[in-house]
Amino acid sequence: MEVIRAETLGFCPGVRRAVELAEKAAIDAKTSARKAWVLGDIVHNPRVTSRLAALGMARLDNEDGCIAPERLVPGALQGSMVVIRSHGAAPDIIKAIKAAGAEVIDATCPKVAANQKAAAAQAAAGRLVIVAGDKGHGETLGVAGHAPGSIIVSSANEAASLPFDRPMALVAQTTFSEDEYIAIRELIVSRQPDLFDAGGICSSSRKRRAAVLAFKGRVDAIVVVGGRNSANTKRLAELAASLGVKTMHAEKAGDIDASFSAYKNIGLSAGASTPDEDIDEAEDRLLSLANKK
């Protein structure tokens, strides 16, 4: 068996920066006997989440993304540190955290922050901001929170129901499907030709997708490693499956089943929030399956 790694895989620069900031904050808080929190999962990966928990960092919100009201009472977070995850957050949430007395460490991905600023600027200019992205995703909600009155759409079908009676601007979730974004844009332009297209899909997502497409004709199967709740990892797995080869989205190495031992050439990819350890362990797992044949 030959395991062929995608040319681009694993942590993107924004994720690496966020994880490093969170780990440093957790260590600093422990050293100074302060409480450390993170708003949501710093990135969508269970290994990273577990590592931060082991360093004493707790999640400020619950699994639904809601923060218990008592945690935001003035003074409730006095002396603590709160890390804003790579996906960012709405301004009113950050303001409330600061008002509760916490020191805020902003680990928002710079690409996401740029989209937040674009959304805010277009809303201030009087345009209705349309955010193309996954509904309920932390990043999408955060970008929308910077543009009061904005609307999130996930498909061209949803975009068809938008109100077209005012100037519009379109901005993307950084990891959103580029094909879907284009379809949404074309639908809006057909009804609102003066649409301001702010874009915003990250080049890191494009590179990972291109690297998966480069597997075509080279591999018999593909394993994509990353968190089950990682949007960009899911999209990579869907793209891999579209190539017509056996594909598996594995959150961890142990998820890879023995059937992969039957393949001679296996492509290995990973989402932008997947650490090197998960990738290395997945490759070791595949090679060990081959050795057991």
Radius of gyration, taken over Cα atoms and rounded to an integer in Å: 21 Å
What proportion of the residues form beta strands (DSSP E)? Answer: 15-25%
Instruction: Give the CA-based shape.
Output: flat
- Say which CATH homologous superfamily of the largest domain is assigned: 4-hydroxy-3-methylbut-2-enyl diphosphate reductase, catalytic domain
- Helix-and-strand structural type: alpha/beta
Helix content: 25-40%
Q: Note the run of SSEs as H and E.
A: EHEHEEHEHEHEHEHEHEHEEH
Classify the fold: give the CATH topology of the largest domain.
Cobalt-precorrin-4 Transmethylase, domain 1
Report the mean per-residue pLDDT as an integer: 95
Distance between the termini: 11 Å
Mind summarizing the main beta sheet? Answer: 4 strands, parallel
Structural features:
293 residues; alpha/beta; Cobalt-precorrin-4 Transmethylase, domain 1; Rossmann fold; 4-stranded parallel β-sheet; 12 strands; 18% strand
If you had to describe this structure to a student in words, what would you say it looks like?
This protein has helices at residues 13-31, 46-54, 91-99, 110-124, 138-145, 156-159, 178-191, 203-213, 231-241, 276-291, and strands at residues 2-5, 36-39, 57-59, 81-84, 103-106, 128-132, 151-153, 168-172, 196-199, 221-225, 246-250, 265-270. The chain has 293 residues and is α/β, with parallel strands linked by helices. The protein folds into 3 domains: 2-11 and 204-291, Cobalt-precorrin-4 Transmethylase, domain 1; 13-108, Rossmann fold (3-Layer(aba) Sandwich); 111-202, Cobalt-precorrin-4 Transmethylase, domain 1. Strand 2, helix 2 (46-54) and strand 3 form a beta-alpha-beta unit. The termini are close together.
